Fold these 3 entries.
Entry 1:
Amino acid sequence: MSGSPRDYRLRCCGCGALFDDDGVRLDCAHPHPPALLRSEYAQTRYAPSGGPSVTRYRSWLPLGQPIATDAATAVYRSEGLGAHLGLRNLWIAFNGWWPERGATLRTATFKELEAIAVFGRLAPDEGRTLVVASAGNTAAAFAQIATASALPIVIVIPLEAWEPLASLVHVGPSVRIVAVEDGTYDDAIALAKRLAALDGYVAEGGVRNVARRDGMGTIVLAAVDAIGTLPDVYVQAVGSAAGALAAHEAALRLIADGNFGSRVPRLLLSQNAPFTPIHDAWSRRAATLGERSAADVRERQSRIGATVLGNPAPPYSAPGGIREALAEAGGRTYAVTNDEMARSMLQFAELEGIDVEPAAGVAIAALAQAARDGNVGRDETILLNVTGGGRARRPVVTARQRPPLVVDRAEIAATEGLAERV
Ligand SMILES: [Zn+2]
């Protein structure tokens, strides 16, 4: 690695070791059970600068190179939904496409904030190609940002994820899509792992990549800009839990600044029943996620409407993970059925005037439960993260019928010749 020195270092949440960043480090170098890394910025004061896009928060983004984007989250005070739920101080962080409000995420979810930060984190002379696996929104977000900035990436998806992706994004020549025929998200992960181990490639890393979390942490920074203070409560639906960890970590940075109080927002997190591993574990205050058979996991995943929340292995018990964050933040978790989710999506469209993604519906339904049960106060400052919305307003791109490279499921195990084909 060379280039300009970075103004942050990486701290292992397990053993406390500090590392210079090479742009792609995902784990601690010391031998111990898995632990998340967290970025520590030289700039401890909150210092946003410049226009409304996410680059306004660059002093708290782990950047190795500048990245140009106009992507922005919109934060506004709710009138319709807030009144409906009896909440006087409900703020909505809208991540999606709603330019009239100031939300300009072209693939209509908060995943774009992750993609921007992940590419920005790379060293300017990084010669390897990132490999990312996704079943949906992440693939669209990375394809969008890579195309806009002509950055190379390999994105591995189940074939069924191709159409939704190609209807959102004009996939540019720097993006190589590899689709697994009859494949699941797990198959895509397995293939991505093998590809990333080949010469010339490197794993993007998901929730372990600090850039993903710090990119999404800008949602809380945008909220503080709009509200003027940290919220009392933070509401989001979680799969990998990266967004909730991001919010928690951003709040810790704001508290360290000294001008935003000393209390982290209570985390109010929700999952889509019957697939609720974090909720199940946290409700029992369990030390680890419960064990389930692969067949049971698949069966439950297949029954949730918010498929993006179907992550079977979120960082729960690892140091820096979601159990720790829930404990520090006095957190509470909720399970939301598909019916509740669908009702909340309709309700939001009626009350706030825009379509939202199913995962956002899961968050809205959990907030309604919490308001009903008195777990949020009517005068508390509440930040609802609408993680995706406005897709109905996006122009539909005419999809190619097949992605350029389709791999048979059976080929995933065979290493021969894979590198040449990709
Ligand atoms: Zn360590």
Note: The longest strand covers residues 175-181.
Entry 2:
Amino acid sequence: MATTLDTPRLILRSWIDSDVEAWADMNADPRVMEFFVESTPLQRSREQATRMRDDLERNGYGWWVIERRDAPGFAGVAVLDVVRWDGFEPRHEIGWRLPVHAWGQGFATEAARAVMQYAFDVLQWPEIIAITSRLNVRSMHVMERLGMVRDFGGDLEHPRIPVGHRLRPHVLYRKYRAS
Ligand SMILES: CC(C)(COP(=O)(O)OP(=O)(O)OC[C@H]1O[C@@H](n2cnc3c(N)ncnc32)[C@H](O)[C@@H]1OP(=O)(O)O)[C@@H](O)C(=O)NCCC(=O)NCCS
């Protein structure tokens, strides 16, 4: 059963049917997908939404839907995930993706703060990382607002992005649970 998280302006909740098209619309917006290698076809977005709902319900963490208290409906996602890439240790990761109408209001940081607190306090994750393309300054600013610290030694070439692609170089930020 997915836990609902509350913040002053937001509710982070599980998926409902009406989120699926909003998720697909967001993924079809080139402004949102500027730092992703591929756009997501509609059918794949729909399949992802079903899988994310199931994973969130089963695991108790994953891709939460962000909803504004003052404007019901889909306002993006905040994510806790375990990344497992060949050649890398599994890592606990945080992430976010919001439709453009929800940018510039502090919602991504507010939502991410809530899921980060959940990861540290409830899931007892000892450390959280965030990665993004070196070009994704907006996302790096969210990481910094969360108090995450860039690990310059952790810069990486994303293993799933083709060699030579401008989005392949990634930065890595970390935050440790306060002991
Ligand atoms: C990355 C992304 C989530 C950042 O969104 P964002 O709206 O810039 O981030 P925040 O929610 O933290 O909002 C911060 C902005 O809101 C402003 N703001 C306005 N009202 C605010 C309030 N009440 N409280 C806090 N900030 C507020 C801040 O001043 C800041 O503005 P600035 O960027 O001009 O300095 C968004 O651009 C996005 O979804 N991008 C596409 C997907 C993506 O790249 N995801 C990351 C992949 S790794």
Note: Residues 42-59 form the longest helix (18 residues).
Entry 3:
Amino acid sequence: MESRLLCCPGCGGPITLHSPATIFVNCLFCKNTLLFDKDWKVFGKVAELPPEITPLQVGTNGTFLNEVLTIIGRRRMRWTDGYWTEWYASFSKGKGAWIAEAQGLWMIAYPVETEMSRGEFEALTVASSVKAAGKQFAVNDIKIAKCLGSEGELPVISSPNEELKSIDASNTNGDFLSLESGQDEHGKSRVSAYVGRYVAFGDFHFKNLRHLDGW
Ligand SMILES: [Zn+2]
């Protein structure tokens, strides 16, 4: 994994970037969030996030399917019925993925290309059928979520109060699809798609975990 050094446009502090996909990062020195849109710019203020009740932290590394990974960021989301956290992992071969825990199950989701327009996305309802990454899925859940804040480096804008629509779909092979509305770094509306599966925590062979009583 090749890292590069960024000079914070807010305070001049050094920020090490670990992923070529990073467009959003927090500065630890001036507590600004920075967005890359042709150049790095100050985007807003960092929202302090509470610690997670998981052993993961930014800096945790591991191996998944024989590829080295490092957790480089997280974002915390809220919806009407609760909260969830997504961890962004950078892989040694340059590809990134989201890792999340839900009700004790772990999942990994990789970004995939999608041709879906915002109109097609908005027209989806529960049980709609969707195709992504050459696979067929059925929608099981649609919710509106708000980003509460982020830490570290992320490939998406993750500013506090950024609202998005999140659509979950799955198929009988155990794959799931996550679709998300949002905007790209130029402020243009876009639909992001991620395809993933459930995995066992042990499959990640994590090291440098946060100490947590009971784990
Ligand atoms: Zn700064």
Note: The chain has a mean pLDDT of 91.
